[in-house]
Each structure stands twice: as structure tokens, then as C-alpha cells.
Amino acid sequence: MTQPELAVDLCGVRLSNPLILAAGILGTGAELLERVARAGAGAVTAKSCGLEPRAGHPNPTVLDWGHGLINAIGLANPGVEEMAAILKDAKGRLKPLGVPLIASIFAETVEGFAEVARRVSKAEPDFIEVNISCPNVAAEFGRPFAADPDSAAAVTKAVKEATHLPIIVKLSPNVTDIATIARAVEAARADVIAAINTVAGMVIDVDCGQPILANRVGGLSGPAIRPIAVRCVYEIYQAVDIPIIGLGGVVDGRDAVEMIVAGATAVGVGSAVYYRGVNAFGEMTQEIASFMVEHGHKTLADFKGMAHERLPKSSETSEV
Ligand SMILES: Cc1cc2nc3c(=O)[nH]c(=O)nc-3n(C[C@H](O)[C@H](O)[C@H](O)COP(=O)(O)O)c2cc1C
């Protein structure tokens, strides 16, 4: 049988396979992004950057709690000026490999997002991912922009006006109705939606009676959150027409297939790098290909969104 086709077209940008390195997973260096690209990623996302350099939270910042990770890195980053130089370097390394580069940005105000987007655009990444899960300092209680459809749309609109590049808006699962937020960012002209960022959580060391992370609260990622992520992707797919990058807890090829069946066009991979190393990308691509051969699928489109297809009515099912 001929090898199945794993390439993806995301807003006119070609990915040789659907697996994308998720934001923040491998520090900030261009060398690391190149390493992931050489290991077989379809695209790579850089660490989120803001206007100014940030040290992030004190240690401990990451913990493997047995069913996934919990982290409170606190968006440590070198600031947009240095990040633009890193992105330029990364772009030069990735271009010959044919692996697209996604910049990731955050800010504490709508205007801040536009400014970071403007400066990051000079490095010519293929996309800008907009991380709206950080707190909006302009809001009364510092709620994340992703928690409210108007705030999410305001950031999307401002970034869209500040750059010529396609933008990916990354949503948070920590909301009651993610479909409403997805509709709002689509209406504000987001090109792609990424879902999900981490799930808010806490792990306590009962012997000392204190949360383990210095920041006390953190974000859950890895296997424990996959069903939450799949449900979010499923609901977003029903709500919007723009492509979705599904991520959260994908650690093998079948998990990636599950995201695509829920409606994702591409699949983000984060914590799996912690569990499997960078070779996860090449291995998982092979696992997806094996699944496709087994099921007679020639392209990813053969099963994308399959979970939404109408179940046969009981009157249509054949008698056994
Ligand atoms: C250590 C760590 C750092 C992260 N940093 C960022 C970040 O800078 N920006 C961002 O949008 N998401 C960040 N994330 C979230 C991931 O990109 C991803 O959305 C989340 O971990 C779920 O995917 P996973 O289960 O495959 O890890 C981070 C996650 C981890 C574990």
C-alpha cells in the first residue's frame, strides 16, 4: 500500500505532518527549535514573549505529579527585542528544512499585544500565536483575556491590525463556554484557533501541608487533561469554520488521531517531549501513518471531524 499523505495546509502554509511543538516547552533558543524540526516536527512554536524581559516565578516551577505536569513558569522570557533576534535566527535555520515557525506573544493590555505583534513581525515568522491566557491587568480582577469574549476579541482585532501575518489565537479551557470565546475571536478575524492552554490546578504536599509550586497555583498539562482538550476541540469545531490546532495531553499517535477526529487540522505536542524526548515527533508521525494504513485512510481529511458525523438513527441500523 502507498504511504498515506500526512501533509497539512494551514492558511496556505504547508506542514509536512500535523505535529506542532507547543509554546514554552523547550526554552527560548533557536538551536532547540532547529533540533525539534530535525526530529520531525511539522512546525515549531517558540516560547511566549512579552514587551519586557521577565524572570518568571521562583522554583519549584514544574512538577511531574504522576498523571501529567503542573507548571508555573510565570512566562519567563527575554522580552520582544531579544526574542525577535532569536526568531530571525530560528527562521534562517528552519527555512532550509521546510519547517514553519510560529512566534508566541503575550501582554497585559490590548495595546501591549499590538506592540509585541508589530515588533515580532519583523522577524517574519510564519504565524503569530496570541497567548491570551495571561491576566489582563487592565481588568478589575486581572482575569485572563481568554476568559471573556469581548476581551478575547479586542486582543484578536488589535493583533490582526498590527501584523500582516496569519494569527493563531490560543484559548484557555478555564472557562464555562469555550465555544462563545471561539466565535468571538473568529468574528474578530483570527485565522486559526489553538486549544487548549493548561488547566488551572494545585498539588499539595500533605506532609508539609503546603502547595508544592512556589506560585502555589499552576497549569496542568499532559495525559490527565486530554479528555478536557478533546471536548474543547469538539465544541470549537461545532462553533467556528476556521482551522483548529488541538493540543493538551497528546503523547502518542493515537492521541493525535483523536484530536483530528474531534475536528483539529493540526495537533500540538508539549508535555510529550518531557516523556518521550524530541524523537516523539518522528515516532508519533509514524504512529499516525500506521493508524491510517490500518484503517485505509489516504489523507488526514478522511477522518478529520469524523466524531461529528451523524450517528445512524436506530431505524437505519440493520437488524442483527
Ligand atoms: C513548562 C511549560 C511551559 C509552557 N509555556 C507556555 C508558554 O510560554 N506559552 C503558551 O502559550 N503555553 C505554554 N505552555 C502550555 C503548552 O503550550 C500547552 O498548551 C499545554 O502544555 C498543553 O499541552 P500538553 O499537554 O501537550 O503539554 C507551557 C506548558 C508547559 C508544560
Explain briefly what this protein structure is.
The chain is an alpha/beta fold. 33% of the residues lie in helices and 19% in strands. An eight-stranded parallel barrel has the order 3-4-7-8-9-10-15-16, surrounded by eight helices. A four-stranded antiparallel beta sheet has the order 5-6-14-11, with no helix packed on it. The protein has a two-stranded antiparallel ribbon with strand order 1-2.
Keywords for this entry:
TIM Barrel, eight-stranded parallel beta barrel, four-stranded antiparallel sheet, 33% helix, binds flavin mononucleotide
Characterization of the model:
The protein has nine helices and 16 strands. With 320 residues, the chain is α/β, with parallel strands linked by helices. It has a single domain, classed as TIM Barrel. Helix 1 runs parallel beside helix 2 and helix 4 packs parallel to helix 5 (178-187). The longest helix is centred in the last third of the chain and has 16 residues, at 280-295. The two termini are 33 Å apart. The model has no long low-confidence stretch (mean pLDDT 94).
Secondary-structure topology with pairs:
Blueprint: E1 8-10, E2 13-15, E3 19-21, H1 30-38, E4 43-49, E5 62-64, E6 69-71, H2 80-94, E7 101-105, H3 110-121, E8 127-131, H4 149-162, E9 167-171, H5 178-187, E10 192-195, E11 199-201, E12 204-205, E13 210-211, E14 218-221, H6 226-239, E15 244-247, H7 253-262, E16 266-269, H8 272-276, H9 280-295
Parallel strand pairs: 3-4, 3-16, 4-7, 7-8, 8-9, 9-10, 10-15, 15-16
Antiparallel strand pairs: 1-2, 5-6, 6-14, 11-14, 12-13
Helix pairs in contact: 1-2, 2-3, 3-4, 4-5, 5-6, 6-7, 7-9
The protein binds flavin mononucleotide (FMN).
